[in-house]
Write a structure and sequence with these properties.
mainly beta; globular; about 375 residues
Length: about 375
């Protein structure tokens, strides 16, 4: 009975923390102190519990029109509705759970900091793999509506490679990470299943992913990543017809990139290469945003080239041009034109122009 009462109290405290967090979403710092929050009225044990739980969430949705293969398509879309909770168990030990209500459970992992400073932390569970500059970043921080570059989407398991399937750039495994030199040098070493989210490994070989992130100057980051492993194909792929469904194959990657942020400009770019069996894929992209008279309105542009299989000449060019309006903190409206020189349809790689017009609304709270 005591355990049941304690569980009920804990559940009540979490619910009150959620409602008090969402109630404060629209308040500025000046108005937040006008009224006491619900947590101020909680008993001490409940205040202690809610102080250890951080709630976050965001939603992205909009409208897309495209012309592909002589056909016009248009649709309203809900792309992501994510909610996650980060629970601080001790000063060194924490747990995170993330769910996408438009998809599946995305992340669940526990972190334990082994050192007094941030030099070494161990992570166990399901989380984003560290390959590439872009993949670890949140879609809410990306300039493009369709989020990541073609190379990042293909090589990290975000969905465009049928051999891997839609894994949202995440996997099950173990990671060691940390930072030194006042945060200027960050590193990460991951041992992953290589099979993606919410599933066991389908071969006995684990993937090893390494990442180095160095900031030589204020606002500038240089990032290098690499992966060595073996994949297990879950479907046939038009990009790599020599690998059959259910076959184990070599899967290695490496990338080098930069990220620069200042008041007048935000710019990041990367070169990527992948090796799947005997096939080689490579490409590069550069994406940026500059303010249009005010920091709230930005002009967004991107150029992206990726060759999915250099032996077969499966190259694609992509260009993006548009703007975004930050109407409240991390909330924005985006409108973009997207051009692609090739696409996949009916299991075939087709070199033909594809045009799209996209708009999206983003709402986020921390």
């Amino acid at each position: 009975m005591k355990q049941r009462n304690y569980f009920a109290k804990a559940l009540l405290a979490v619910a009150l923390a959620l409602f008090s967090s969402t109630a404060a979403m629209g308040q500025t710092d000046s108005t937040a102190t006008a009224k006491p929050s619900l947590t101020d009225k909680l008993p001490d044990w409940a205040k202690e519990l809610t102080s250890r739980i951080q709630l976050h969430g965001y939603a992205q949705g909009g409208y897309a029109y495209s012309r592909q293969g002589g056909q016009n398509r248009n649709s309203f879309e809900i792309k992501r509705v994510l909610f996650w909770a980060n629970a601080r168990i001790t000063d060194r030990w924490s747990f995170l759970f993330m769910h996408d209500f438009s998809s599946v459970v995305q992340e669940f992992y526990t972190d334990y900091r082994l050192t007094k400073n941030k030099a070494l932390t161990v992570r166990l569970g399901q989380f984003k793999n560290g390959l590439s500059l872009e993949n670890p970043l949140s879609p809410t921080a990306m300039e493009a509506i369709d989020v990541y570059s073609e190379g990042v989407t293909f090589l990290t398991g975000c969905g465009s490679d049928p051999l891997m399937g839609v894994q949202y750039g995440r996997d099950l495994g173990l990671a060691l990470f940390g930072e030194t030199n006042d945060g200027r040098l960050r590193y990460e070493l991951q041992l992953m299943n290589g099979q993606g989210i919410n599933r066991k490994d389908l071969n006995n070989t684990k993937d090893v992913i390494g990442r180095i992130d160095f900031s030589p100057l204020t606002g500038l980051r240089l990032v290098a990543t690499g992966q060595i492993g073996r994949g297990h194909a879950i479907a046939a792929s038009p990009y790599n017809p020599t690998i059959a469904n259910g076959q184990n194959y070599k899967r290695n990657r490496w990338t080098v990139g930069f990220d620069y942020k200042s008041k007048p400009v935000k710019l990041h770019g990367e070169y990527l290469e992948g090796y799947d069996g005997d096939a080689v894929s490579r490409g590069a992209y550069i994406t940026g945003a500059v303010p249009l008279g005010t920091p709230k309105v930005e002009l967004v542009g991107s150029y992206d080239f990726f060759n999915f299989n250099t032996d077969l000449g499966l190259d694609q060019h992509k260009a993006i041009l548009g703007f975004q309006y930050w109407f409240y903190q991390k909330c924005r409206f985006q409108l973009q034109y997207v051009f692609k020189s090739a696409y996949v349809a009916g299991g075939q790689f087709i070199k033909d122009n594809n045009h799209a017009l996209m708009c999206q609304m983003q709402i986020r709270f921390n």
